[in-house]
Amino acid sequence: TGGVIGVFRWLYDHGNAWIVSTLRHGADDLATALIVFGTLILLALIVGQMVRKEPLISGSGIPQTELALAGQLPYPGFRIVASKFVGTLLSLSGGLSVGREGPSIQMGAAVGCGFGRIFQKLTGEDPGHAPRFLIAGSVAGLAAAFGAPFAGMLFAFEEVKTIVTVPLLLFTGVASFSAWFVITILFGFGLVFPFSSIPSLDWGQMWLPVLFGVGTGLFSALYNTALLRVTEFHDHQKLVPAPLKPLLPFLLSGVLLYVYPQVLVGLGYSTADLGGLTPNGPLLLGSVALLLFVKIIFSILSFASGVPGGLLMPMLAIGSMVGAVGGTLLIGNGFSAEPQLPAYLVLGMAGLFSGTVRAPLTGTALVAEMSGAFQCLPEMAIVAFISTVVANGVGSPPVYDSLKRRILVNKNASSKIE
Q1: What pTM, to 2 d.p., does this model score?
Q2: Residue 278 confidence class, pLDDT cut points 50, 70, 90
Q3: Which DSSP string do the residues of 136-190 spell out, in sequence order?
Q4: Backbone angles phi, psi at 308, to 5 degrees
Q5: Which band of pLDDT confidence, cut at 50, 70 and 90, is reported for residue 161?
Q6: What is the C-alpha separation between 353 and 367, in angstroms, rounded?
Q7: Which H/E stretch holds residue 392?
Q8: CB-based burial label for 418 (10 Å; 0-12, 13-18, 19+)
Q9: Phi, psi (deg, nearest 5) at residue 310
Q10: pLDDT at 67
Q11: CA 230, CA 402: separation in Å to the nearest integer?
């Protein structure tokens, strides 16, 4: 799994760097614009046909993996690895606001299932033991996607709700840290976010994480509702045929390239820009608020179209923007110092992840391992747990539970039509 996801990340990083470099060297003339939009249309048509032929690669991949573990969908195989790999790579290369983590988990689960089948043939083991291979593969997938082995293990027991046993703990631990070793040592991938040396909050400011927890919990509930409403609308609308649904986000990506490139990965603002870690200093409040608004719309439309791609990376980006808005307001009103702004970004990420997914331990470990901001662990844990409680309190279901129900409803509807 580490090898598969490592190659995926390497291809995306180098491909995206080439695309960004090409566009920055001249994309203003009419001929280049025609090539850009023509390429985006072609990518949209290819991705649409891939999803039509292999529906299980649509969307994140985490709900499909959990349903397979529950026996409600078939275990993923090599075809899923190949289709998800190519489909997600095309979606990301087209500039869509989707993530690699859900696809990495689904690809890892498929790799794990493949090894499980080989192992069973060699040993004659009871097929009933196969779920541990799916779980270990999915754990390795998350660890490889983010370089976060502890978060990968917690994901198996908190989000997938696997019963904790010592053998399974060891099995998933070896898988997770093996994938992390391949990604970190062999491929050389480092921290996703550059926050290892940021200052934490003072003890006298510990009421601020409570405030952030409440805010991100409410924001998570609104985000989940908007995401699911738009996704269900896409499911039921009859105007655009299913294979053509990816056209909207791909074309929107082209429009944003010329109208508001700041929201596009590689061309726009980075988390370092949001945290004021660049020579230009922190962004103005209005700039961050506009970026947040456009990012939410673009992310929801990208995911709702059914393209292969996850929720978590855009969600973390949105969380960092929420943190930047909140931190800027607190600094402007004298409740915090400007050097502490990056701390609010990691708090926003931990809070939005936990409130949306409803997995506070995983969210805290994931953001800490991705950013290296272990000095902010107490604040992140406070935000994560309060955000989870608030989102539960307002009656918002966890996003992946809602997406699992959607998949089963669509599956039953397709069966009735057939």
Answers
A1: 0.92
A2: confident
A3: HHHHHHHHHHHT-HHHHHHHHHHTS-PPP-HHHHHHHHHHHHHHHHIIIIIS---
A4: -65, 120
A5: confident
A6: 9
A7: helix 377-393
A8: exposed
A9: -95, 180
A10: 93
A11: 13
